[in-house]
Design a protein that fits this description.
- This protein is of the alpha/beta class.
- The chain folds into two domains: 241 residues, Aldehyde Dehydrogenase, Chain A, domain 1, CATH 3.40.605.10; 184 residues, Aldehyde Dehydrogenase, Chain A, domain 2 (3-Layer(aba) Sandwich).
- The chain contains 14 helices and 23 strands.
- Strand 1 and strand 2 form a beta hairpin.
- The longest helix has 26 residues.
- The chain starts with 5 loop residues before the first strand and ends in a 7-residue tail after the last strand.
Amino acid sequence: MTVQPVLIDGQWTISAGTSTFQAVNPRTREPLPGRYPISPWAEVVRAIDAASRAAAIVRDWSGDRFAAFLEKFADRIDARAAELVEIANLETALPVQPRLKDAELPRTSNQLRQAAQAARDGSWSVPTIDTAPNIRSMLRPIGPVVVFGPNNFPFAFNSAAGGDFAAAVAAGNPVIAKGHSSHPSTTRLLAEEAQLAANETGMPAGFIQLIYRTSHDDGKRLVSHPAIGASGYTGSRSAGSQLKEAADRVGKPIYLELSSINPIYFLPGAIREKGSALAEQFASSCLMGVGQFCTNPGLVILKSGTESEDWIRQVAERFSAAPVGTLLGSSVQTHLESGIQTLVSHGATVVTGGASGGGAGFCCQNTLLRVTGAKFIASSAALQTEAFGNASLIVVVDSDAEFVAVTQALEGNLTGCLYSATNGSDDALYDMIVPILRQKVGRLLNDKMPTGVAVVAAMNHGGPFPATGHPGFTAVGIPASLKRFAMLQCYDAVRPHRLPAALSDQSPNSSIWRLIDGQWMQGDVPGK
């Protein structure tokens, strides 16, 4: 069986690796055609060296050059949409419609175009000019960026096309894409189009590169290599933490998205007002995509009482009646089953589901668990184990004080949501919870399920550890996401002809915003 090539230094090349792997169709559990190499360290170094050469070439290029590449790449993705959707469906079992064809693939090309607009405008780099001391600064490219893609978004977070990729390129950096083993063919197709777009727009060899897998030790060596500017990683908490430790040891930035259970509070008045509607909304959100979203609601907090018990019964009925979907792979099923077992072993009881099977391929029954507030507080670390998939834990508290204590025990999350009564009866309790919760989540929602992420400038897809590795950055939302892959560079009394264009007295374009002597403005430096 043919071993697929890697993309290094502008060429598709037979890998030097002797070990290979195959992707598996999650629905049939059968291996898919094509073998993919595990790159040895010497091959990884070749990619790093090529990326370093490319970085030196593009370091002073205008944003227009990167924008042209990103827009051409987006066009090429759209032109190859049918093939991309077909192979992604085989590799992930995610439905063609509406998920892959109608939602995720258009989001991916849209992200690339948004990143192109930010690169061309340049305001993301925050050009700052203080004329009296003649000191100027702005964000500029950090150098080669390594992107590790996850298993659950084969397009929108793909290492060769997704949000981290788009942000790194828009900030002016070459990218080394480290594909995910669950969907290597999808990543290969995207990298093919990326390289063709790079050729068509005059990008240097090594600007876009792809390796499929490395050993764990080589992954740690990669993120900590002296020539690497920064890394972006989306995946498991255990693997991401190991990469972070390696990168931190040598002071290399690494931006992580790891683990989030996304707590939802259903306050008593909301349950009384619209309990049945909320049961339907929650069940739909939790089971959407077989629960394999980073913003899947994995934790519910509500107050004990007959209305809450009726609500739990309604949710359980919906979980039991809903079809069991196919998980992304064997490891996802294994980790989901392990997560459920951890919750049970620390005091949670199964309301419905809890066993493997029930659907096609890799799968687990739709699972709802419950635990008392007291037990959650006593074993809060274990009871926040992420059961990534179609499962959720309900925490039933006995008092407002327990609502607060549970909130205090929460780890960092991407999202946190509260449903409250429209008549104001929950407002006092809301005001007790939110000041604590606000510091533990990147995105606070009211009366809205967290599943899904809007690709808009104000979005924060981040949060305190273990949701991410740093609470000050986002993986979604342009232009903010670009800032992860840049370094702040200051110019003190540097002669005018040696300054970057964005720091010159004359504005490089009509749209860029610059902070000049404490005032945000467009146009030239006043009086110059």
